[in-house]
Amino acid sequence: MASAAAGAAGALAVAGERPPTTVAEWAARDDPGSSNAEQRFAQWKRVDEQLVQSGAAKSNAIYDALGAQTNALKHHRLWSKQDGSEVACVATFGTDCVGHPGVVHGGVTSLLFDNTLGWANALSITKGGDPSQHDTVAQFGMTANLSVNYRRPLFVGQTVVISCSLDRVEGRKRFLKGVMKDGKTGGVVADATALYVVPRTAAEKAAGVKSTWAK
Cα–Cα distance between 43 and 192 in angstroms, integer? Predict the structure, then answer.
């Protein structure tokens, strides 16, 4: 891992771009394309700053592995409506997250959907309050299903906006939906649906409520 990080740092140096040294430094960097896309969220609030400031983003797949260590993601920020009814991710892709040459790997698209949908799920429960003040697994649940439809290729250097919200609730099952659009044109790049399942409480277990998870 150290050699891979060193290789990525060397590539950035050759390109004339100094690699970030910490998650906080990477997260603070501005990107022209992302800044333009984020102007539409002036009345929303940034919701991932506490994650970075607290140090919880260290070893995070997005902020550390794809962000600070490799700059595969040049930019990633999360915004929410004040009441938590919708969450948006603004992201710009670098050169180290490709599948086909110049095309962002579909797994990266799925990762960003899963993360943004997860935040949307949590904030729909807290009504916009700080999710870190809660038992995230017990209260928000975990991803049970994620389905992504890829509508058009996503390219290196492209900025996207991922908008996610709660669709419906059925008992402990929480269904969410999201769409990824080009940050400039608004064209749909991909869309997704997800199911999050909240674990049974001790009282539910005692009462014999069956688990949703497969045995």
Answer: 25
